[in-house]
Amino acid sequence: MPAPAATPAKTDAPRVLVFTRTAGYRHEAIPTTIATLRALGAQAGVEIEESEDPTHFDDATLAGYRAVVFAHTTREVLDGDQQAAFERYVGHGGGYLGIHAAADSGYTWPWYGDLVGAWFARHPEGLQAVRVVFEQDPAPLGRRDWRVVDEIYDYRRNPRADVRVIASVDPHSHAAGGMGDDHPIAWCHTRAGGRAWYTGLGHDPALYADPVFRAHLLQGLRWTTGQADDC
Asked: Whole-model pTM?
């Protein structure tokens, strides 16, 4: 008797939606970001799905995801009903992870401004070589002090009072910065109900090959999906 055909193995891996819709500037790093998140997801046992379709933002569809990544979204990418569904999703414990231009999105959506932590204000021309200091344990790869070349955002406000700052830019290394003596660049919080994590880094596609940055993203992915206690 011939052996029965093998059936595909079902996976119970947490699903994460990577949302990359843009209504303004479109970052060159988007394909690299998706590929990196897929690799990190495999490492963390997380199933990564990518889409630019805003119709994913309804109650039934969002319920299938452990977290949603806003990867370089720009300007207004969801309508009112979709925004309301995402608010309910996070309010019921869904995770949010924002990368770089996620802070350049949702300016007419006050709830989102609180979720991302701080909206983008400006950045100097070109890329900047700065010193980044990780403020929390464990630091990615044990590195407290990291030299990085990327596009460094200034924000419309300093979010430190409302979030747990993960990393900040040393202002002495960033003469073109406009945040004064305290320049947070990555942070996390749970004020909206679910776990929210944001990094302002990630503009330059080359940065995604840096093992410290990859470890930084992996830490955020694990925390937002509930696999780690430290963000």
From this structure: 0.94
